Amino acid sequence: GNNNSNKGKSNNNNNQGQKNGNWQRKPKQQGYIAEHEDDSDEGHHMYSAQFDEETKSTQDIWYVDSGATRHMTGRKDWFYTLRDSPNKNHVSLGDDSSYSVKGIGNISLPLGKHDCKITNVLYVPGLTKNLLSVSQLLDHNLKLDFDSNNGEKVCLIRDKSRGSKIVARASNVGRMFQLDFVHKDDQALVAKDTQSAELWHRRYGHISFGYLQTLQKGNM
């Protein structure tokens, strides 16, 4: 991949907790995204990402990242609208590998009975992590509550336009939060009987059994 000497630093003063707008290199286990502007080439941007090495490498899981500045995924089939990226943008990972941003578009995530539309998502072919930016979620009238329940750290995503109703839940994995949601391919598993709930529990063991039953009833 590309060896970017500025990897891990940003000129963006919107990054919270960083003095003078500079990113300090975080521990390898810390997951974050930082946006970079390449002053030598106007209009070009570099997005860096470093992931928890204990986090499973999968193309089917979304992670909620408080340090992320943009949503991004390598799953082109998830987009219902997609346009070419106007600039020569790249994503640089912690291992110095680099991926081109090929497009920007919108994705619909099925959350219970409702679809949550995620806009302005970067399409990055080859990227094996799907990342949701907390900042972008807040821009879309959503509220995120981080809490600990019986020793389990969770993130509850609420829709303020619907009376702060819970629309999604994420479980703590390492230093990131893994989104619990129903994949389109798995919606056929949703049923009202207990047998189906047990099947869900085997497939999504990180979600509490009670939460699965609630999700099936659509009372999120």
From TrEMBL:
InterPro entries: GAG-pre-integrase_dom, PolX-like_BBD
Transmembrane intervals: none
Ranges for region Disordered: 1-43
Residue ranges annotated for the Retrovirus-related Pol polyprotein from transposon TNT 1-94-like beta-barrel domain, each copy included: 62-141
Pfam families, A to Z: gag_pre-integrs, Pol_BBD
Record field: compositional bias (Low complexity): 1-22
Domain of life: Eukaryota
Every GAG-pre-integrase domain range: 177-219
Protein name listed in UniProt: GAG-pre-integrase domain-containing protein
Lineage: Eukaryota, Viridiplantae, Streptophyta, Embryophyta, Tracheophyta
